[in-house]
Amino acid sequence: MYLLCTILAALFSFLVLKWMKRRNYCMDVKRLDGKTVLITGGNSGIGKETAVALALRGARVILACRDEDRARKAVREIKARSHNLNVLHMEVDLANMKSIREFSKTFLQKEKRLDILINNAGVPSVLNWTDDNFSMCFGVNHLGHFLLTNLLLPRLKESSPSRVITLTCSNYKYQRLDFQDLNYNLFPFFTYCRSKLANIYFTQELARMMEGKGVMAYAVHPGYVQSNWTCHYSFLFQLLMKVIMFMFYVSCEAGAQTVVHCAVADEVITNNGGYFCDCKPAKLQAFANDAGVAKKLWEASERLVKLA
């Protein structure tokens, strides 16, 4: 009897965990032949799975990565899995504004199209600093992608209709921006939350500014995913998180589905500037829907990256 109860309890727990981890998959079968996709941080995790999915649809996929060795390995894997040889990588360090400018200049010289830009790369809750003295989370997760997107906007407009998809996180709701200290770097988790909130405001303002110009923008929360973000932390923390992620987090393939959905589905067009989760529009906290704050952040970001 005890054994039977144990088995039933284990089965029930398994079914509950499976139900908690359920995710919608992108069902749109649109091809992307002749389209060019640029994915930052596409050498692992969600970025790599997104690259595979879009390469399978025939897209030319370019991985923008900092680590050349890992990028080359990822390119080989993506080609093998997608049977698409039109996959390559270009080097960029989103923690270095000079690197972003050089990358963008090279990209504009070499690439005649940019149909989908996926701002996927990001860093977790860390207290490091970028080469330009920005907090690592704000500098990479927001400012790096802000500068990159702006520098590539000419090609995005020329390739219209085009899309910019920026990955964010539902943790945005735990913090608000402080314009007296945008470069906040005191508590790692709060720093991360602010950078993810900035991603949402960036998407909203980009959509407003590009209205009528053929460039659409979407913010995506992929869910809590079994990616390799724990590599920034101690071995014991990594071990603990591997157990937790195995139990509660979804696979990278499942996490990539909403990104793919926003990249290909026609139905998202009516939600330009929107926030998506689980392949459908999601509701934001009221304070995250403030057009005034979004505009103010855009102007402050322009000054910080010297975009004028």
Automatic annotation (TrEMBL):
Classification via InterPro entries: NAD(P)-bd_dom_sf, SDR_fam
Q: Which SUPFAM superfamilies match?
A: NAD(P)-binding Rossmann-fold domains
Indicate the segments annotated as coiled coil, or none if absent: none
From which domain of life does this come?
Eukaryota
Signal peptide range: 1-26
GO MF annotations, alphabetized: oxidoreductase activity
The protein's UniProt keywords, in alphabetical order, are: Oxidoreductase, Signal
- Any one Pfam family here would be adh_short
User: Family per UniProt?
Assistant: Belongs to the short-chain dehydrogenases/reductases (SDR) family.
Q: What is this protein called?
A: Uncharacterized protein
Please report the organism this UniProt entry assigns to the protein.
Pygocentrus nattereri
Q: What does the record give as the organism's lineage? A: Eukaryota, Metazoa, Chordata, Craniata, Vertebrata
